[in-house]
Input
Amino acid sequence: MLNICRNELKKLKRQKTARMLWAVGILIPAFDTLLCIKNHYPFRNLVGANVLFGSFLVIPFVFSAMLLNLFELEERNHTLKNILVIGVPEWKIFLSKLASALVIVVVFMGIITAYTVAGGIFLRNYISDVFHIFGIFLITSLCSVCAAMPVALLIILLRKRNLIAMIAINCFILIDFLFLWQLSMFHCLEMHLPVLAAYRITYPLTIIEYTDNLRLGLDTLYYPMDKGIFLLGATTAASLGISLWLYKRQEADV
Amino acid sequence: MDIGMIALIVICLGLMFLLAGIRRQIKKINQVLDEIIEGKTDRRILIRKYSLLSDTCYILNQIMMDNKERIIQTRRQEHRNEKLMTSLSHDIRTPLTSIIGHLDAVHYQYIHGEMNAESVRQEREKAYVLKDYLDDLFQWFKLNSKEEKAEMEPLDIVEETRAVFANWVAAFEGNGISYDFVSDTDEIWISMDRIFYERIVNNLLKNAMEHSGASKIWIKIEQAGITAAVKICDNGVGIPKKAIPFVFDRLYKSDEARSSKGSGLGLAIVRELVMILGGKVFAEPRKKGSCFVMEFPILGN
Amino acid sequence: MENFILETKGLTKCYGDTAVVKGVDIHVKKGEIYALLGRNGAGKTTIMKMLLGLSRITKGTVHMFGQPFAGNKKEFLGRIGVMIETPGFYPNLTATENLEILSDLRGYIKRDAIKESLGKVGLPYKDKKLFSEFSLGMKQRLGIAAAIIHDPEVLILDEPVNGLDPIGVMETRDFIRELSQDYGKTILLSSHILSEIELLADRIGIIDKGILLEESSFEELKKRNMHYILLSAEPTETVIHMLEEEFHIGDYRIMGNGCIQVFDTEIQTKEIVKFLAERKIYVDAITKCSDTLEDYFKRITGGEGIA
Output
């Protein structure tokens, strides 16, 4: 399995799409870190902004785009038959692509952490516990990826039509983010969407320093942990399960 | 549960996984080896690149593949031998049939008087040609099965070549062929067998005189660094460019129809002999005529 | 016979209600070159895909090496080398990197397996050229390299000379022949280029519209069906009538120019001449001929020939 993951990452060498995604993942967090620095936000706000934009926008986008890229790579180049003819079962291919995308997510998390810490140094009121910050990003990113898992379904259904798939994924991520952005409006607090659950249960973790304003925010955004985890878990499991089943069925019936 | 315990447990689990993986690989390898023993020698073992067992499997596969190559070479050799046998019997049968034909004609007295004497002369010639051919063939077989042993001694190749060439002067003059002998050094000492070398030069000169239709045959000896080159050249019909790699093959004859003279073995024997003497022989392409070049390593003093 | 490396029984594939492959029984012996001959769209590629488990089998079984394919898929696939449809490789990687990916998944048989297989097809090792810059001939050669890299016992090649120039066709043909004759590999290939099949195949399976019309060794095919007597005598109808009555010929065909092809070759030509002469019919020309594979194919598939 590790072998297969390594191979998936090798396939991205010199690839234009991969390069663009790397650029997106590197530049956008830099962008909003710079904005925060320019406006002299306190560190905790920097972390919050990076969590919002980084973990809940850039990461799901990069994750789903990379996953789509990995699947569509095989379709475009007719290489899937090569892999199937070696005897690798479809579910292994599916999971390895998923794992590779997750690995890339972790790398991006590291980048965002680096930006945050760098931003903190600039703002001169950072907390030098890098692991803590990395942990924050890790958990938020994982939750947000779990919440965005239904893209896997979209990818499997649309992978043969690259452009449409790309648009569909972007729409999904944007809509998710829209709900997040308008958290306090549109009756969002009453909706039980996975992405909202992800944000709300991880919100307490992202607090670096407590202020009175934050106390209010915490109370509003409170979401029961077990319910949240259940929702996220169910979304992930259902999406992956259905996608895997569809993938297997589609490939077998070529 | 402190971090040490957790790390230990993780390491233990990791090692267990590794071990289980290796056990699985060993099981697969044994399965393949069982099939190989049963006789399915085409089975190969597939193994990951960075496994502990990789080198072992590679060596096992290499043994099987080397075996296979050997079998293929043997089969190819057998095939060549069969072809050799077939063409041999043809080479011998043809002149023999002709001789028998003539003898039958004499026996049944289909020919009389003067014609009788003429046909006896003809068939006698044919018999001698056949004998020469069989001699050549025997020599070639001995060379091919590596039975001939060379007796090497230091000789001056210039002098030896000149001596052999001198024997042909009469034949050249009788056939109106002009000749020349050039050497850029007076003496070049080489380790070789005198009798073999004589044979080589004789064969090459015979080939030049009988097959090229040349009006001039010459020998040129050159020294280039640590090798001595002996070139036997003629200005005759030459060798077509695409035939050059095959000209020393046993059955090669440049003109298929004119197979009356020569057995096609002369050059093949030359090549075998030169190889035994530790040299190289090749045909040099030329615009007009042909040039056979032999190269031998010079004896260090 | 247990001797078959590859055997299918009643192989069928349906897409919905339409059957694209119906009841195909293929038998491939060890060490022979078996050619699937058929027009484009006859079902050759579908059959090959079903053999390898790339396409779901609606009905029928596949047996390989004497065992059913279904249960031993992974093990069998390691002994088969495949080149199906156009060779697919990653355009952003070099040839070596592409083969590395495939070999990492499958396993290596020797340390420099990639170098050797690239050498066998004449491609450079660790070259900087990306696959997207390859010519068609190089792509095809890389496909073959990928198929032989693990020294498989069986090769399944779908139209191996597709798109190659004449030299490439010849080289591929010699290579395939060497693999079969010297190394004893079993090769199943498909083609619609009849001349190539004539030069290579030991056995032929003719596929048309998803049905296996005929399967036999090339020699047998020539002997059995492709020899015929070509007879030119006037008036054609009378001649036919007489021959039917006297010799009970069943298998014959009247060509455009009035010549008659008689496929019952047990009849002696001299008998026909004598018979017709006695009835005052003068034979213009009579000779024993042999169909080319193309003519035979046209005949057996109902006349349209190869697409």
About this structure: Chain C has two domains: 4-221, 223-300. The longest strand of chain C covers residues 4-15. Residues 4-221 of chain C form a domain with the Rossmann fold fold (CATH 3.40.50.300). The interface with chain B takes residues 78-79, 103-104, 106-111, 150-151, 153, 182-185 of chain C (CB under 8 Å).
